[in-house]
């Protein structure tokens, strides 16, 4: 008797690297009770049916942080397998337009410089985003 392979869910996630005028990047801390709770991440969320990556990022940053952004150039696309989930992270640079960033869907937010970002614990897939940001600069 052969067993059927277990299908791991796959999510496409739009991710925004949001810069301010001081060349800092906005990161948010995941709520402790959720998956990968307490880790820091770049804001974003799951792509909805019929939505472009750019629309997803714009919507998610408004819903999660209360800010309006202009979604800019693609920084990197990452395929990453966790034990429970496979993700495709579609990462774009974002330019702040309006609103006061607030932790609506996360535990806290911080503006950090590239020099400071290494002090924060991120999920494994985000390490590639940080490397891409440093290469871009």
Describe this structure as you would to a colleague.
This protein has 137 residues and is of the alpha+beta class. It has one domain (18-136): Nucleoside Triphosphate Pyrophosphohydrolase (Alpha-Beta Complex). Helix content is 18%, strand content 38%. It contains 2 helices and 7 strands. It has helices spanning 53-65, 126-136, and strands at 10-19, 25-29, 40-41, 44-46, 68-81, 86-98, 108-112. The strands form 2 sheets. It has a 4-stranded mixed sheet, sandwiched between helices. Strands 3-2-7 form a 3-stranded antiparallel sheet, with no helix packed on it. A hairpin with a 4-residue loop joins β5 and β6. The protein is globular and about 50 Å long. It starts with 9 loop residues before the first strand and ends with a helix. The mean pLDDT is 91. It catalyses: 8-oxo-dGTP + H2O = 8-oxo-dGMP + diphosphate + H(+). Belongs to the Nudix hydrolase family. It comes from Scytonema millei VB511283. Its EC number is 3.6.1.55. GO terms for molecular function: 8-oxo-7,8-dihydrodeoxyguanosine triphosphate pyrophosphatase activity; 8-oxo-7,8-dihydroguanosine triphosphate pyrophosphatase activity; 8-oxo-dGDP phosphatase activity; 8-oxo-GDP phosphatase activity; metal ion binding.
């Amino acid at each position: 008797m052969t067993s059927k392979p277990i299908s791991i869910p796959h999510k496409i996630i739009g991710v925004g690297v949001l810069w301010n005028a001081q060349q800092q990047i906005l990161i948010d801390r995941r709520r402790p009770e959720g998956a990968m709770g307490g880790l820091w991440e770049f804001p974003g969320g799951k792509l909805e049916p019929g939505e472009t990556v750019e629309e997803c990022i714009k919507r998610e940053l408004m819903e999660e942080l209360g800010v309006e952004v202009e979604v800019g150039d693609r920084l990197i696309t990452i395929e990453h397998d966790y034990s429970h989930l496979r993700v495709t992270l579609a990462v774009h640079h974002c330019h702040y337009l309006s609103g006061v960033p607030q932790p609506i869907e996360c535990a806290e937010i911080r503006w950090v410089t590239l020099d400071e970002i290494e002090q924060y614990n991120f999920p494994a897939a985000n390490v590639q985003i940080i490397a891409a940001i440093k290469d871009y600069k």
